[in-house]
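Box 3.1 — From sequence to structure: Proline iminopeptidase
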Amino acid sequence: MRIDIGGGVRLFVDVQGPGLVPDGVRMREKPTLICMHGGPGFDHSAFKPGFDALADIAQIVYYDHRGHGRSDARPSEEWTLDTWADDIVRLSDALGIEKPIVLGQSFGGFVAQRYIARHPGHAAKVILSSTSHHMGLERKLDWFGRLGGPEARAAAEAFWSRPDPQTWAAYWSRCRSLYNTQPPLDPQAGERTLARTEILLHFVAHEKQGLDLLPGLARAACPVLVLTGDQDPVCPIEDAREIAAALPERWRHFACVQGAGHGTWRDKPQEAYAVLRNFLLA
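Predicted structure (token representation):
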């Protein structure tokens, strides 16, 4: 379904599971987990069906970011982290969600970090998954070179430095298989993604180049889990450690899944979902 979040902007939203469940003589309210997908330019489909593993303890709200996937197309001046971060509040208001748990995967983690800075009291908890706080080009290049050799390093440098349709196609062809340590459980998952590469290229060419999200993390006012894999080349573990260090100590939680790459549940589902369940239930 498409939800109007104000100003005529409609986001595609899918909800898994009830928010209220029978519990003896009362109805018990489950927490609401809002999942923000990666990209930019991708959609929410990569969370499915894996996140079924959490549906017994949380109502899960999936949505496509403004301009993405099945959400309405929007002009490029709205393709900014500030706008996407504010959309979390707009969507929560439209759906009547108070104190959501917000999970941002990869690019969704950029959005979640900006959300922390702009709306520190809004969430009950935040999960920053397989994400970075800056471009961190040299780290990316070191990792891709380590995992894929000189050709992978060169393809990564060309795309992240000079994003266009040609460098993107070469990068995705050469480097996508290096994101994870295990073959995909569902080889057709990528084919289901509704991709809008114009958003990806615009973001990488503009806001991504000077990205610096660390200062805003000091404003965190709820528990924040930084979840990373130790074999992630595009959002390396070094970035995750710096994100965690920038959070107030009282709210800081950090978990590294050994042997996992980008999106820890893709490579080590048992370990990653256990970490997420423990944080949701804490």
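Summary of the box: Strands lie at 2-4, 10-16, 20-23, 26-29, 32-36, 59-63, 101-105, 125-129, 224-229, 252-257.
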